[in-house]
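User: I would dearly like some help making sense of a protein record. This is the protein in question:
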Amino acid sequence: MNFTPTAIPDVILIEPRVFADERGFFMETWHKQKFLQGGIDADFVQDNHSRSVQGTLRGLHYQVKRQQGKLVRVILGEVYDVAVDIRRGSPTFGKWIGFYLSAENKRMLWIPPGFAHGFYVTSDVAEFVYKCTDFYAPEHERCIIWDDSNLGIQWPLIKGVHTFLSPKDAGAPKFTEAELP
C-alpha cells in the first residue's frame, strides 16, 4: 500500500496494491500493521455503506463530541470526496481537500477526527463504504453548508443534473456560524 500525506498532512490518500488477473482482483482494504507503518493509528468500531444516485451531495458532516475518524472508499461508481479541517488552532483550520474516489481507481482516504466530511456523486450511482473510529452519535452530529463561500470548495457539479441534498444538509449553517468541537 502507498500512503501519501496530502496538502493537509493528517489526511492521507491510500492506494492499495491490487492483484488483478482474468478472474478479477484482490486487495487489502485494512491491515492494522501496514496502516500503522503508513501513519494511521486507528481502531474502528463501525462500518457504514451508502448508495446514492448521481448529483447526491452528502455533508459536510462531523460530530462535536465522540469525533470520528473515517477510512472511506467507493466500491461502485465515483464520488468527489471532501474533508474540511475544523480543528481550532490547526495551521490548516478552515482549509479543505478533495479527491475523486472510485471503484476503478480503488483509492481510499483517511480522514482523522477533527474534520468535516462530505462527498458528491459524479457517476450514475455510487456505493460508498467507510469505517469509523467512534459510533454514530446523532445528538452530537453537526453539519456545515456544502456551498459556503468562506470555504470555497470547488465541487465538480454536473451541469444539468439536480443536486440532491437532505433537508438537514440543505439547512446547515455556514462555517463561521457552525458549532465546532
User: Anything to note?
Assistant: The chain has one domain: 2-19+41-177. The chain has a mean pLDDT of 97. The helical segments are 32-37, 167-170.
